[in-house]
Amino acid sequence: MKYQPNRDYVSNDVVQTPLHLAKRIVDHFKPSGRILEPCRAGGHFHRYMPGAFWCEITDGRDFFDWNQPVDWIVTNPPWSQIRAFLQHSMKVADNIVFLMTVNHVWTKARIRDIYSAGFGLKEICLCEMPPEFPQSGFQLGAIYIAKGWRGQIKFSDVSVKTGTKRAPEYA
Questions:
Q1: Residue 81 maps to which CATH number?
Q2: Which residue has the higher pLDDT, 150 or 10?
Q3: pLDDT at residue 166 tops 70
Q4: pTM for this one?
Q5: Which residue from 14, 47, 120, 131 lies 20 to 30 Å from 22 (Cα-Cα)?
Q6: Which is higher by pLDDT, 149 or 137?
Q7: 12 found inside a domain
Q8: What's the average model confidence in pLDDT over 37-65?
Q9: Is 148 within a domain?
Q10: How many CB atoms lie within 10 A of CB 141?
Q11: In this structure, are residues 45 and 25 in contact, taking their beta carbons and an 8 Å threshold?
Q12: What would the mean pLDDT of 65-85 be, rounded to a whole number?
């Protein structure tokens, strides 16, 4: 692991998704039915999902205590706990969207977890890396994992674009 970029930053896993990015992700996936935001923090995703349930450990609502079924989970989970969050999410939700670096989903263990739980990767939606996020050199994406999905993985992009040019980050 010592050769991965930027492994020396210190993080407490509290990284707020900018409002504009949370809105684009919610608008793109259009979650409906019973929705859960398991890491509400400042409420940036929650703001665009009126009526959604929420958890936030700092407010005394631990996601790992949540056991009610929901149709959707949309969140920016703590990246150091991706596997545990994913495993628990697949126990309570049919559709899961995690904002994380794309490499987080590509480990053998996580792919095995997804398929053995009866889920599949449905979409990888690229997003620009907000400057306030830890800069790692890895691509940020909203990863959509769906129960029962066995089709092709859709590839999309909700990055900020100016005219027909990509965001400066991608230029």
A1: 3.40.50.150
A2: 150
A3: no
A4: 0.85
A5: 120
A6: 149
A7: no
A8: 95
A9: yes
A10: 25
A11: yes
A12: 95
Report the DSSP beta bridge partners of residue 75.
98
89 Rama sector, left if φ>0, alpha if ψ -120 to 50, beta otherwise: alpha
Residue 28 belongs to what domain range? 19-170
**Tokens encoding 38:** 């398991």
* Sign of torsion over alpha carbons 136, 159, 48, 75: negative
What residues contact residue 102 under an 8 Å CB cut-off, 6+ apart? Answer: 124, 126, 138, 139, 140, 141, 143
In a domain, 37, yes or no: yes
What's the mean pLDDT when you consider all of the chain? 86
How far is 25 from 80, CA to CA, in rounded Å? 22
Under the banding of pLDDT at 50, 70 and 90, the label for residue 143 is very high
Q: Does 13 score more than 80 pLDDT?
A: no
**Predicted pLDDT of residue 3:** 37
Cα three-residue angle 119-121-124, rounded to 5 degrees: 150
The reply to whether 5 falls in a domain is no
